[in-house]
Write a structure and sequence with these properties.
It is built from 5 helices and no strands. By secondary structure, the chain is an all-alpha fold. Its EC number is 2.7.8.41.
Length: 155
């Protein structure tokens, strides 16, 4: 039995709740504020991991599912809104992907440690690359490099 009300879990929930607002700001072309809030979201991602690793009482099985879920929600919302704002070229999905890990369905009570998700190095690198692409695309209109060849290569 564990407490689901940890600081890292609350930071993940804040990141999930921030995602739709960030998407709205991007579609309304408020890129300066969007970039600042994206940086804040990145800081909460680093902070929740640091807290969970530093204080064992703050680590939870729920957090092991919430953290990657928050990352995927944030990245998905940003990709869609950046595509809508024409800052990322349209993307084609060959098949729909599920945002929720299959193991999440095993959590009937978030207080019980029924599963622990451990991300692979490959998934961490993949997420980092996606976040870098989103950050560069979001920064492009703020710093006037939307026509950069390097940005287009990144896409």
């Amino acid at each position: 039995y564990e407490n689901p009300w940890t600081v890292p879990n609350l930071l993940c929930v804040c990141r999930i709740l921030l995602a739709p607002y960030l998407g709205y700001l991007i579609t309304q072309q408020h890129f300066d504020l969007s970039l600042a809030l994206f940086a804040l979201a990145g800081a909460t991602d680093l902070l929740d991991g640091l807290i969970a690793r530093t204080w064992p009482t703050q680590k939870s099985a729920l957090g092991s599912a919430l953290d990657p879920l928050a990352d995927k929600i944030l990245i998905s919302v940003l990709y869609v809104s950046l595509t809508y704002a024409e800052l990322i070229p349209g993307i084609k999905l060959s098949e729909p992907s599920c945002l929720l890990p299959v193991t999440l369905s095993k959590f009937f009570n978030p207080c019980y440690t029924t599963a622990q998700l451990k991300p692979t190095l490959f998934s961490k690198v993949n997420t980092a690359i996606q976040l870098f692409l989103v950050a560069a695309s979001l920064a492009a209109p703020v710093f006037q490099f939307t026509d950069s060849v390097l940005l287009q290569c990144l896409w």
